[in-house]
Amino acid sequence: ISFNAIDSALSSLKNCQSYINSGMDVATQVALDLVESFNDEEDINNMEKVMLEYATMDRELNHYIKAFEETINQVKREKPENLPDLENLAQEKFLEMESKNRDSDLERNEKYMYFKDQLKEMKKQCSLFCDHGNDTIEQIDEDIAVTRSQTNFICPITQMTMKRPVRNKVCGHIYEESAILEMIQTQKQKKRKARCPKMGCSHDDVKASDLVPDEILKRVLDSQKKQ
Q1: Which whole-number Å values give the CA distances from 64 to 24, 56, 85, in the listed order?
Q2: pTM
Q3: Over the stretch 201-214, which tens digit does the pLDDT of each residue have?
Q4: Cα 200 from Cα 207, distance rounded (Å)
Q5: Helix ranges restricted to H, the chain
């Protein structure tokens, strides 16, 4: 196998990763819809199994990619007179990584952790429905909005109601996606770190990689908008 062939294989593997990420996003949305619709718990558990299957595929792909990259770097570093069998060398590295697999690895998958977090939050919100007896959906939506408190609706940067809220995984604060990304980019150009704009927060290094969509808050905001 030539270096060009390996580069092509790596590109294909990374494309597959994007498909897995998209699949996990869809599975998360479906699970949230199931909770919101009061579907059977078994259906929701099945979606969690789907997420774990995706996480397994993602781990395997990561190992393939790392094995190929390590193989290329090793050959370039050692510069052997006779080019070894790159395919076998990469396969050995891959199998070594796979032998160290643990079930707990899957539960640390970032998309899976986000799935669990959002599912837990959605179940909390939906538990409010059980406490409202025969109230109308409009009344329940209004009560949910109140329990989330108005401050959660307002971006600390724009001071306007958010449309695409994202939550900071480090400090837990929520911002309008475009506003926080612009702030991070502006500070980066000044060669400074972006401080969390939420008053009283001590987190002084907000990164784009730390931001995740707050699907639950977005659903509440969308519901309020429809009313």
Answers
A1: 20, 13, 16
A2: 0.66
A3: 999 999 999 999 88
A4: 18
A5: 3-36, 41-78, 86-98, 103-107, 110-130, 137-148, 177-189, 215-226
Q: Where are the domains of the chain?
A: 3-130, 165-225
Residues 109-145 have pLDDT tens digits of 999 999 998 888 888 776 654 444 444 445 545 554 4
Instruction: Assess if CATH 3.40.50.1220 describes domain 165-225.
Output: no
Phi first, then psi, for residue 160 (nearest 5°) are: -125, 160
Q: What percent of the chain is modeled with pLDDT above 90? A: 44
Classify burial at 190, counting beta carbons within 10 Å of its beta carbon; exposed 0-12, middle 13-18, buried 19 or more. Answer: exposed
Q: Read off the amino acid at residue 111.
A: K
As given in the structure block, the two tokens for residue 193 are 């770190």
- Residue 38: left if φ>0, alpha if ψ -120 to 50, beta else—which one? left
Confidence of residue 14 (pLDDT cuts 50, 70, 90): confident
Q: What is the pLDDT of residues 183-207, one digit of tens each?
A: 999 999 999 999 999 988 999 999 9
Give the C-alpha separation, 183 to 194, whole Å.
Answer: 7
Q: How far is CA 178 from CA 155, 157, 166, 204, in A?
A: 11, 10, 9, 19
Residue 1 buriedness (CB in 10 A; 0-12 / 13-18 / 19+): middle
Segment 30-50, tens digit of pLDDT: 998 888 787 778 888 999 999
